[in-house]
UniProtKB/TrEMBL annotation:
SMART domains: AAA. SUPFAM superfamilies: P-loop containing nucleoside triphosphate hydrolases. It comes from Seohaeicola nanhaiensis. It comes from the Bacteria. Keywords: ATP-binding, Cell membrane, Membrane, Nucleotide-binding, Transport. Residues 12-259 form the ABC transporter domain. Its main location: membrane. The keyword NAD does not apply. This is ABC transporter ATP-binding protein. InterPro entries: AAA+_ATPase (IPR003593), ABC_Ni/Peptide_Import (IPR050388), ABC_transporter-like_ATP-bd (IPR003439), ABC_transporter-like_CS (IPR017871), Oligopep_ABC_C (IPR013563), P-loop_NTPase (IPR027417). CDD domains: ABC_NikE_OppD_transporters. It is found in: Cell inner membrane. Pfam families: ABC_tran, oligo_HPY. The lineage of its organism: Bacteria, Pseudomonadati, Pseudomonadota, Alphaproteobacteria, Rhodobacterales.
Amino acid sequence: MTQAPETSEVVLSVRDLQTWFDTPAGTVRAVDGVSFDIRARRTLGIVGESGSGKSVTSLSIMRLLDPPGRVAGGEILFRGRNLAALPEAEMCRLRGQALCLVFQDPMTALNPVYRVGRQVAEAIRAHNDISYRAARDRVIELFGMVGIPDAERRFDEFPHNLSGGMRQRVTIAMAMANKPDLLILDEPTTALDVTIQAQILDLVKGLTDTTVLLITHDIGVVREMCDEVIVMYGGRVMEHGPVAAVTGAPRHPYTAGLLASIPSVAVRGQRLNAIGGAVPSPLAMPPGCPFAPRCAHAMPACDVQPALVEATPGHRVACWLEQGAEA
């Protein structure tokens, strides 16, 4: 991704976030002590397998957790204000204006019985004192910006009349309508074919003035799109740093495994690499490092969770291999 100008302004600061789900079978620590900053006009990616805590992190930031989910600890500082402690009425004012979330499935955000243009127009009018006509003009402008052809006609279409790619463009237009300070994209291209995926990613890359948090399972997408990356597993941060450092010289065995599993024309016809084993049950997480049962480098020290330490400037890793432990 083209590097945005350096800035010291932190838009979002997450500190020791803990999000738990209290179930009859026990407490699931879906996010367990996650911390990171996102600076203005930068893109941070969070990558990991399903069940690693990525989407729960985004829902925690937006305060969209359904019971029995709850933020059990930590702070979510958005421009210095702790979102975890704000009254719900204040959060409602921020959502859709300063903070926007684009879901993997655009039908999650679109009402099937209302025309798509009207839905985006109402999102604009909810936060701005303007006429419906002015909002309509703004929607048509936005549709053009996100690559929706024949925008005036598409304004009056229902969601089911549009392709998956077009529906996702509508949700991105809705998210960008009020020029948010932070745009969160939760697996925005997973349900789309590869051609439409590329078009949506190019659209996101063009948002050079927007601060973006990109949630994905695809480390190849992160390599293309992001300035920094967090690798999550079992609700914890395994590795965090600049994309070039993390993807070019991974320090954690889990990150190395994700990178090795990316298909490549260089290995066409050969069996794909895969990380052995499976993600553990969230109700039966292993003690210490959650990746240890699947790790070829596991050692007795892994029974204790390693701290996230700086391996090189700006590049942090939670692995005993980086801390001099011996098998």
